[in-house]
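Study the following:
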Amino acid sequence: MDYVKVVNSEVDTYPYSIRQLKADNPNTGFPPNVTESSLAEWNVYPITHLDAASHNARTHIATQQTTPTFNNDRWELGWDISEQTEEQIALYDEQVARGMRQLRDELLEETDWQALSDVTMSSEMTAYRQSLRDITTSDNWPHLDRADWPTKP
């Protein structure tokens, strides 16, 4: 669990720990299981980690905040959502394309044995393998949905 130490309603130290509280107060005996109410007496509060808001990872980036804020009677660590630059979007697209090509190559490798000279490949398998090779020409490339992929016969 993460904690924050607060002084005058402002963040003094984050992250903060029970170990650090004990080190800061060496002449104080603390119980083995320190409760939230006893921590509050020392102005130490647990942090609630919020989930990032829904966003399009291609066009926006979620960055976790570095300082908790007080909201709804609790200290929270939230997220900032900002727009990606054109350069960041291009890099994201390249990474997605690399992953899609890797998946396509793995799917082709699974059927390579059917392309051996002593195996007669079915027309369905030939069409499947060609569809995998052509997937980079899909209108959705490289952001493919499951429905964009051919079905293995």
In short: The longest strand covers residues 10-16.
